[in-house]
Each structure stands twice: as C-alpha cells, then as structure tokens.
Amino acid sequence: SEENPQKPYSDLQVSEILKQKDISIARRTVAKYREALRILPHNKRKRYDF
Q1: 36: number of CA atoms within 13 Å, CB side?
Q2: pTM (predicted TM-score)
Q3: Helix/strand/coil for 15
C-alpha cells in the first residue's frame, strides 16, 4: 500500500507490516536497505501541505 506523505512509515512500522505478511525482518535490516536505496528516514520524508 502507498504510505501517507504526511505520515510516512518508520523503519519499525515497515518491519511490523512485513511481519504481518510472514516476512520476518528486523528494524535495523529495514534501515540498512532503506539507506542502500537512498531513501530518507521517515522524519525527513514527511510532506507538509499548507
């Protein structure tokens, strides 16, 4: 599913979503792949619409 631009998923939330789909992955592993793909952390991806 698409994440809400105003409330992007944290690494922990991504890990928990994957766990619900029977994919066991640690938060740190999610962070490692996010960094490798040059995706910013959730607090830097947050979009503000004024």
Answers
A1: 6
A2: 0.83
A3: helix
